[in-house]
């Protein structure tokens, strides 16, 4: 991508009302635009990051046997009444049709849609198990949307739902999903900072599990057991004061943000929607469900909260919008020709490259490269002659290489 063709420009300052580091940096670097509190547009660079995260998640979900669908955001009141959540779901956005006076919800989650959907197709034990997921935008009337991408009022979630004949089968799948979640966090670069935590299971299960990423921007407090490499949520700590795995009482308190959540729903949503199957003996039973959520905006925000410095973002290679940032310092003549040639050759070799060919000052180009935060910076200038200066975003040291060597290291 030639940077002079991008319709988005970097900004010296983020909006004054934006408190969070992730949104400040993402707005200044031109990855997102703020429409209003908790609602953001993904701009070209930001959308590339989003899609990289999305593809990592999708690949794992397919590995879990998940079938991808897309459910509507616009949802009928009746479904929410059936589960009792029309009046009990705090952050449900509701509105009334001007013409028919019918009431609707904007989906904050999709148990109320997926359960009746599966009831149309599942009738026998032979139809189970099934795994269905989507990556879709959710709407929640959040009281405090001040954490940038970490807490939106409109945001993308991956939600997977599993359907089983009995709890044993659900438990097995639940354990597989746990491992898959940990692989996702490793792949997007935050594995080292992310803990499986024991959280409240509500009324129908002792524990549920969350995945919490340590960051000062987090809204939760977790208690880490260094022996088990897991953590415990505050509500559990208040009850038992020790690690549920090994009994260790020596726990480290840290601020964290919930990036994922897995839950044994059992029959909570199958019952109200008559989601049943007949077993081998023809006896009718309720389907056992599990659900597995993960926030994509929140993941992107958490990555920025962890990987930045005073100059800007420092993207992990797996989710960076481009792998290299090529800077041409010198708008015309031989330097431009040389830079153009390198740009073309990098593209030919399949390297994702952002080419700063703008007519801008050297300082501006360097500052923007640090702010945007691509993993490798390449500079072509009068000083570098017929060589290219290579620098990693995470390092200070630079080195000069010729074109052949460049293609080898990139
Ligand atoms: P929180 O306690 O942070 O409000 P939650 O328990 O409401 O989260 P779930 O309903 O389990 O979250 O949603 C699944 C996932 O969706 C969460 O793990 C998180 O990654 C993401 N998520 C939830 N709410 C938001 C939000 N307002 N903005 C961005 N992502 C969100
Ligand atoms: Mg919530």
Automatic annotation (TrEMBL):
Ranges where the Aminoacyl-transfer RNA synthetases class-II family profile domain occurs: 38-316
Ligase is among the record's keywords: yes
This protein's UniProt keywords: Aminoacyl-tRNA synthetase, ATP-binding, Ligase, Nucleotide-binding, Protein biosynthesis
GO BP terms, alphabetized: prolyl-tRNA aminoacylation
The EC number(s) this enzyme carries: 6.1.1.15
UniProt-recorded Gene Ontology molecular function terms: ATP binding; proline-tRNA ligase activity
Catalysis performed (reactions): tRNA(Pro) + L-proline + ATP = L-prolyl-tRNA(Pro) + AMP + diphosphate
Keyword Signal: no
Cellular component aspect of the GO annotation: cytosol
Pfam family, one: tRNA-synt_2b
Protein name, per record: Proline--tRNA ligase
């Amino acid at each position: 991508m030639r940077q002079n063709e991008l319709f988005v420009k970097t900004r010296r300052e983020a909006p004054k009302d934006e408190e969070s580091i992730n949104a400040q940096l993402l707005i200044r670097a031109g990855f997102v635009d703020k429409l209003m509190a908790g609602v953001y547009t993904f701009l070209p660079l930001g959308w590339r990051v989003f899609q990289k995260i999305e593809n990592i998640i999708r690949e794992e979900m397919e590995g879990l046997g998940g079938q991808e669908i897309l459910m509507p955001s616009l949802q009928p009141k009746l479904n929410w009444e059936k589960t009792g959540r029309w009046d009990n779901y705090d952050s449900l956005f509701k509105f009334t049709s001007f013409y028919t006076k019918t009431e609707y919800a904007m989906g904050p989650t999709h148990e109320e849609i997926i359960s009746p959907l599966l009831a149309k197709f599942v009738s026998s034990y032979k139809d189970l198990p099934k795994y269905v997921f989507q990556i879709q935008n959710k709407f929640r009337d959040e009281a405090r949307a001040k954490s940038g991408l970490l807490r939106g009022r409109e945001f993308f979630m991956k939600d997977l739902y599993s359907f089983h004949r009995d709890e044993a089968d659900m438990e097995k799948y639940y354990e597989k999903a746990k491992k898959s979640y940990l692989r996702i966090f490793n792949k997007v670069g935050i594995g080292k900072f992310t803990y499986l935590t024991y959280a409240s299971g509500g009324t129908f299960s002792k524990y549920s599990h969350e995945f919490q990423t340590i960051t000062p921007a987090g809204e939760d407090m977790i208690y880490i057991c260094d022996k088990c490499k897991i953590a415990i949520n505050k509500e559990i700590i208040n009850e038992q004061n020790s690690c549920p795995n090994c009994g260790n009482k020596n726990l480290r308190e840290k601020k964290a943000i919930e990036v994922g959540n897995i839950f044994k729903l059992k029959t909570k949503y199958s019952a109200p929607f008559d989601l049943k199957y007949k077993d081998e003996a023809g006896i009718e039973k309720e389907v056992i469900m599990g659900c597995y959520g993960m926030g994509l905006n929140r993941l992107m925000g958490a990555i920025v909260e962890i990987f930045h410095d005073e100059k800007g973002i420092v993207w992990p290679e797996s989710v960076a919008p481009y792998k290299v940032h090529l800077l041409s310092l010198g708008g015309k003549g031989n330097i431009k020709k040389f830079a153009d040639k390198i740009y073309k050759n990098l593209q030919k070799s399949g390297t994702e490259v952002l080419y700063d060919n703008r007519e801008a000052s050297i300082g501006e180009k360097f500052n923007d490269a640090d702010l945007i935060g691509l993993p490798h910076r390449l500079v072509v200038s009068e000083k570098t002659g017929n060589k290219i200066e290579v620098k990693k975003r995470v390092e200070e040291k630079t080195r000069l290489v010729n074109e052949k060597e460049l293609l080898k290291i990139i």
